[in-house]
């Protein structure tokens, strides 16, 4: 935190005070340099992160916290676009709604020829709409063009025939009586993989149609804003210099969750200096947004790019969990081969919870249904023992996993409070209207 100049990478485990160290660094910059609050840019991954950072910074430096620019990446790009409206020429564009996104993708699907790899002749003719939108989002966040993705598919295809995955593992007799020896090419499996890859290429090609519709109809989405800024900074060095000269100190929270395009934007802002005042905080063990374009690889790239002048700090004092929980988590995450280091031994430092005696309990079930019933029964038993409902939480990987247990608990008369908003676009009426 005392290091004010040059690139700094902070590997911060869960509960180690990431927000506090960012706020403390900003306060230290203002205390020890002649920089103004307006010369500091702090980028966060979510709106909630922005609010938390501003709140913590208020505790450190008071009202000057409102003079420090704290944005999500998208909000920062929106600022650039609004300040440079004449350059971007976007006065007549509006943000696309989710309903419009679905409508545009369905138009694209309807225009596919009958022999298109994604055309369906029966069932839900627009079955691929959700997956196409998800692909478009990833392509934008990673700044992939359709041509680039097609090239990567072709490169992968060229390796398939030699891949052990598509060779018979033992002697096998086919449906027609043909005998295949161990090591022979499994042509059926290869054909199926090639079919899927043709679908990927076809889906990538439709991305250009989607972008054309957005342009023709005066629409854009949030991911477009980052790509526009990247392109504008590449094309106009004076425009880039405006923001490089404004922001002398750059800070990034939850760096492990930045996407390829966000990382590129950050490098553009920092590129003015050989050793930029760039302070990033992240944890390779906590990259949770990979399918939104985020990757722990950005931490590796950052460390490699600035290796000659980089200061690396690892935070290990945890203020949230008991030592038993931390040790259990460490035993699991140590098997992650993508970790930057296995030396992160978190220590429980909160005296109120550090020595709690209850260890984590791992229970396996034969099916999801068995698991749902067991979890519901455990909750019911806790309530009967007098445990308050607000002291019980169910954590799940994705929202779809929660639906069954919510229905089961509700059926038993147990009140639940899902920590997510209902997606009205997935309701039966809206799906029919679409």
Primary descriptors:
434 residues; alpha/beta; Rossmann fold; two-stranded parallel sheet; globular
How would you describe this protein?
The chain contains 16 helices and twelve strands. With about 425 residues, it is of the alpha/beta class. The protein folds into four domains: about 10-85 and about 225-315, P-loop containing nucleotide triphosphate hydrolases (Rossmann fold), CATH 3.40.50; about 95-215, no CATH class; about 320-360, no CATH class; about 370-434, no CATH class. It has a six-stranded parallel sheet with strand order 3-2-8-9-1-10, sandwiched between helices. It is globular, with a radius of gyration of 26 Å.
CATH architecture of the largest domain: 3-Layer(aba) Sandwich
Strand pairing plus helix content: what structural class? alpha/beta
Shape: globular
**Total tally of structural domains:** 4
User: How do the strands of the widest beta sheet line up side by side?
Assistant: 3-2-8-9-1-10
* Extended strand count: 12
Radius of gyration: 26 Å
The CATH homologous superfamily of the largest domain is termed P-loop containing nucleotide triphosphate hydrolases
How large is the share of residues in beta strands? 5-15%
Nearest-integer average pLDDT: 86
